[in-house]
Design brief:
The chain has about 190 residues and is an alpha+beta fold. The protein has four helices and four strands.
């Protein structure tokens, strides 16, 4: 036998479905309100000039184009002693040497340099004070701004061991523990 609560719930659900089946068509088949009969006019989109973008060129292609445009190496031709030509001497034709083609050389790789990052500050004045304090102690200190933070560095040095020694000296003298990082110009 079915529980009494379950019976009441089933009867209630049936009555809801029956009333929805009767009421919804009356509501949905009614007249459309006059405020919904408004016509919406959309203007034409603006005409933009079509810009064609040229494809990206590789660095090698750009370098080869610049090499073609660049003036060739200039070579000086020694001048002969100025002698007035006589009627008996035939005129000599001066030949210009052909330009010398130079082999492309790759840029020299800069040796890695190392710097000690001492601190990072949110305030520029704090970074400036620390830089001045380190400079007074004869350290090559500078600050750089990255992502609205001011980083204080000492260096750069060519050897990582030298940067480590500087880091240890600063830790003893000022109590600031730094990080040895690769030096970056920007």
């Amino acid at each position: 036998m079915i529980d009494r609560r379950l019976t009441y719930r089933l009867i209630g659900a049936g009555l809801m479905v029956l009333s929805a089946a009767i009421v919804l068509p009356l509501v949905l088949d009614g007249e459309r309100p006059p405020e919904l009969d408004m016509q919406v006019v959309v203007s034409d989109p603006p005409a933009f000039e079509v810009v064609e973008i040229s494809p990206v060129k590789s660095a090698q292609e750009i370098a080869s184009e610049e090499a073609e445009k660049a003036p060739q190496d200039i070579q000086l031709i020694p001048l002969a002693k100025s002698v007035t030509p006589s009627a008996t001497q035939p005129k000599q034709e001066v030949k210009t040497p052909e330009p010398v083609k130079t082999a492309k050389t790759e840029p020299k790789k800069v040796a890695d340099r190392w710097a000690v990052q001492i601190a990072t500050f949110k305030s520029k004045s704090n970074a400036t004070r620390l830089v001045e304090k380190l400079k007074k102690a004869n350290y090559d200190a500078y600050s750089m701004t990255t992502n609205s933070l001011y980083k204080v560095f000492v260096g750069p040095e060519f050897k990582r061991d030298t940067s480590k020694k500087i880091r240890d000296d600063i830790k003893k003298e000022f109590g600031l523990a730094g990080l040895v990082v690769k030096y970056s110009v920007n």
